[in-house]
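Example 3.2
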Amino acid sequence: MKLNVGGIDRVVRVAAGLGLVGWAAMGGPVWAWIGVVPIFTGAMGFCPAYTLIGMNTCPLKEKSQS
């Protein structure tokens, strides 16, 4: 599994996911439990949907030329 979710993207995903889960836990709509998905993808650094659409927000590592 190759990482495809970069730093800022990960932070935004986890924050949004925590907000949704917190809202659901406090009596919000049932659909707000979907927040576990961005929490998981942000924590793992991998998003299957990004793979399907060919997207990658991870910064590229430069190869050293020796």
